Amino acid sequence: MKIEFDNAFYIKLGEKGSWENDLLNSKIAKIGWDHINLDLILSDNWDTIKQSIHQNYIERGKKTGATQDYNALRNFCKASDHDLFITFHYGKMYWCFLSPEIKAIGDSKYRSTINGWSCKDVNGNDLYISEMTGNISKIQGFRGTLCKVEDKSALYMILNNQTNPILEKIKISRRDLCKNIETALAELNAYDCENLSDLIFRQSGWQRLSNLGRTMKDFDLELQDPLTKDKMQVQVKAKADRKEFERYASDFEKNHDGFDKFCFMVFVPDKTLDDTVVTQDDVRLMLPKEISELIVDLGLVSWVANKLVK
Hints:
The chain contains 11 helices and 12 strands. With 310 residues, it is α/β, with parallel strands linked by helices.
């Protein structure tokens, strides 16, 4: 069943999220306003409540925010059990529906959740903020206590694990582009393959320790990761078969020569390399499908296009 809702609200659980741990585990949503008597809320006396909130702001010497506070309290109390509430905690989004009854804990007002707080979508996937559209993830920066979620359609798709139609088109376009680049790789000469390999690794953050391969005896590239200080040797082949790969991998295993990793890149592989399983942790076989995806992701499509016959 889909997660259906009428309206959606973001609620901050305590100042700077100070109530989050307790409330997410205790299955309630709580809001402050200690100077507002619960009886005023239960009797629906919102005119008096509005006046009280504005008076409180005057007494505290605050010039703005009273109307926002009033709207937040009213929305929290008047929201139906078909209205969705969301909050954010440790990199995830949590959501719930609230039962109608409004109660008080000390000076705070609260409503119980109907089925507790959840950080899962309809299919049980974790709702990571980093994977959400900006219209939803940006809400966590809201400085007030409660606000309405304007982009209900985006929230609906997130909760029901639906793909944005525009995103689906982008995925299809990217897939087609990668396939075309993979086909184009067969038209590159050996020198182009070496230069492109160098660009791929440098765009990925690796630093070259050597000149390009034509002046080197055994390997085309020697690289270092500036963060981990790992060193890698790379052999670039316009064409190669399984025996050639195994020979280079075996030679690397016998003599690391101070290097931590070895990568064998093939732009037009022989069929014998199909379904090759690499068992060594420090050896990597890079074939056209992966190479083409890196070209697209690293912004090297124009470079490849410029090498093709006009």
